[in-house]
Amino acid sequence: MKKVPLSEIAYVKIKEKIMRGDFGEENYTSQNQLVEELNMSRTPIVAALQRLKQEGFVKIISNQGIVIQEPTINEINDFFDMRLAIETFSMKQLGDLLTEEDFENLEEIIQDQLECVENKDYLSFAQLDADYHQYLIQVGGNGLFFQTMANIRERLFLKTTYNLKKRQGMALAIEEHVNILEALKQGNLELAVARLDEHIQNGKIIK
């Protein structure tokens, strides 16, 4: 069994901390703090931070520390435009690919989201929201779309969670997911695409 490099373990752990919002409102940490929290040496943590810097998750300020990078309003809206292009195109290609099992799996995701509403579990809800959309792309079979969407979702994860809390948008998101699924069950792709378009547009930030 191949041993996982420590830099990869550090990368995964730091990214998880970023996506959970563990660094608080100040969005700041340091190499010394990460060494202590992860119980690792500095070398794998530095390598992980360089990788996260390249991906746009952090900004490394010499002799000061690590700043967690949140997307700007323009970047967020650009991400949503890319989501719109990828997801609506993918849905148009579904045709009769969706099976009864797929419908059941999507309904299960929605049921899990309803439980998150009751528990005010914003992090799990945001992950389930991603699962719902990724599921539909996966059915379409375009691996590049799937990976691109996964990257976009990671960059938007903190902002999605924040918006769910601020706007109490969980109930609306569920309603829109249900409406999209109903259109798909009816075999009305045109209606499903229109509802998906509206759903994604609702996530954009009005300047």
Automatic annotation (TrEMBL):
Show the InterPro entries listed in the entry: GntR_C (IPR011711), TF_FadR/GntR_C (IPR008920), Tscrpt_reg_HTH_GntR (IPR000524), WH-like_DNA-bd_sf (IPR036388), WH_DNA-bd_sf (IPR036390)
Which terms does the record give in the GO molecular function aspect? DNA binding; DNA-binding transcription factor activity
Q: Which parts of the sequence belong to the HTH gntR-type domain?
A: 4-71
Q: Which is an annotated Pfam family here?
A: FCD
Keywords for this protein: DNA-binding, Transcription, Transcription regulation
Question: Which portions of this protein are annotated as coiled-coil regions?
Answer: none
Protein name, as recorded? HTH gntR-type domain-containing protein
State the organism of origin.
Paenibacillus abyssi
